[in-house]
Amino acid sequence: MDDQLSSTSRLEAFSDGVIAVIITIMVLELKVPAQRGVAGLLSVVPTLVVYFISFSFTAIYWVNHHHLVHRIEQSDQRVLYANLGFLFCLSLLPFFTSYVLEKENDSFSIALYAASMVITGFSFLLLRLAIERRMRVAGTFHPGDAAIQRKHLLSLGLYGLAIPLAYYHPSVALADIALVTVVWIVPTAGTKPCDDDNR
């Protein structure tokens, strides 16, 4: 199966479409408050915060996905199936986001939200490993890629920490999830030159 190589263009186009739908579904969950004025706007701030975290989470994965896929010219069966696994896990994010909002940020809902982050992060790690395998074959794997992989593992650990933390301090657990998302902005930007050089 690994010998069946194909262009990455269809993989990326399909992934872009799925991620666009995921973001659209999350936007549709935003409801205008019944209460008028500033008080009504303030009442939806918690909703906007969770939406912002979920949107940032999805957007950063899209950026990293774009850079990873552009590092290889052909995808094999491992890459294709790993990509489908990642998209499946990411497609569940609108549900878990809605769950947090419906349950008003209680401990269990945030723990479940954090667990979804772990699962999605792990599925993306599998995709990263599958693509890095292709990069090693092509001779385009760099030491910086190993450093990003370690940061990915650290992120999984922090997401995992948010699960038990949610039962003691739900708001702190949510902040932990948001912090990991923000941290990924820097390495994503930092890897861009390297990615563009190896298309």
Overview of the structural elements:
With 199 residues, the protein is mainly alpha-helical. It has helices spanning 9-28, 37-43, 45-69, 77-91, 93-102, 107-138, 143-165, 170-183, 185-190, 192-197, and strands spanning 6-7, 74-75. The protein is built from ten helices and two strands; from the N terminus they run E-H-H-H-E-H-H-H-H-H-H-H. The chain has a two-stranded antiparallel ribbon. Helix 1 packs parallel to helix 4. 28% of the residues are buried. Residues 188-199 have low confidence and may be disordered.
Q: Specify Rg, calculated over alpha carbons.
A: 18 Å
How large a portion of the residues is in β-strands, by DSSP E? under 5%
Give the overall shape, derived from the CA principal axes: globular
Q: In terms of structural class, how would the helical and strand content be classed? A: mainly alpha
Topology, number of strands: 2
Order of helices and strands: EHHHEHHHHHHH
Strand order of the largest sheet: 1-2
- Helix content estimate: over 70%
SS summary, helix count: 10
Low-confidence stretches: 188-199
Average predicted confidence as pLDDT: 83
Distance between the termini: 24 Å
Mind describing the biggest β-sheet? 2 strands, antiparallel
